[in-house]
Amino acid sequence: MAVHDDCKLKFMELKTKRTYRFIVYKIEEKQKQVMVEKLGEPGQTYDDFITFLPADECRYAVFDFEFLTKENVPKSRIFFIAWSPDTAKVRNKMIYASSKDRFKRELDGIQIELQATDPSEMDLEVFKSRAN
User: Fold this and answer.
1) How far is the C-alpha of 83 from the C-alpha of 33, rounded, in Å?
2) What pLDDT, on the 0 to 100 scale, is given for residue 70?
3) Single GO cellular component annotation (predicted)?
4) What is the CATH number of domain 1-33+65-76+86-116+125-132?
5) Mean per-residue pLDDT for 83-111?
6) Dist. CA 120–CA 57, nearest whole Å
7) Per-residue pLDDT tens over the stretch 24-41
8) What is 50-77 written as a DSSP string?
9) pTM for this one?
10) Which of 53, 56, 76, 93 is most exposed by smallest CB count within 10 Å?
11) Could you give the 3-state DSSP secondary structure of residue 100?
């Protein structure tokens, strides 16, 4: 599975310049490559982000999660989310599962990985508990 240059470029902008809050990636089967599907503006929230994950299709996503430490120090962690809902077709799940590690290696700077099959597995509380 090829990775479109835009995927790495946009990720670097998120990581270094904080240009985006999140990026949703989609595998285009016909072109056999991972493409950027949606870019979240810096002002968008977690609630905005989850609306771009389809209920019955897999996606990869990167989310820049900002939080305060116990000492009230602002920090952020870059999460990689492998979204694979139970309702997705088996072929769709297989393609995403088999391409995940190679794609993730292309995105240098991911700090935390989440696998999610339904929204509860990537609830905001999950992000908070994994970020610390």
Assistant:
1) 17
2) 87
3) actin cytoskeleton
4) 3.40.20.10
5) 96
6) 16
7) 999 999 999 999 999 999
8) HTTS-TTS-EEEEEEEEEE-TT--EEEE
9) 0.95
10) 56
11) helix
